[in-house]
Specification:
The chain contains 3 helices and 4 strands; from the N terminus they run E-E-H-H-E-E-H. Strand 3 (about 70-75) and strand 4 form a beta hairpin. It has helices spanning about 25-40, 45-55, 85-95; strands at about 1-5, 20, 70-75, 80. The protein has one domain. The chain is α+β, with helices and mostly antiparallel strands and about 100 residues long.
Length: about 100
Amino acid sequence: MKVKKLDKRNNGYRQFKYYIKPTSHGMHEVRAWCWETWGSSKELNEWLRDDASLAVSPFHQTHCFNEHWCWQNDQYYCRIYLRTDEELTFFQLKWQ
């Protein structure tokens, strides 16, 4: 799997530090592991939309707002986004 550090060119740059591009393992297997490890999350675009709404109204809570991870699975990118070094380290212990 490829680990990339996000920069200003990437969606989610301000909210997440890394993304994982699954190669040898399927996206569904990796996403299922993240779900079991950190709980339910959302697709990146939904996550960013909800993050923006929380900034406007902190009382707005969604049923699924996970600060550790999210995913992107569209016609261009299949990625898992991780928030901090801690999540990346835990991920690497499992998958590398």
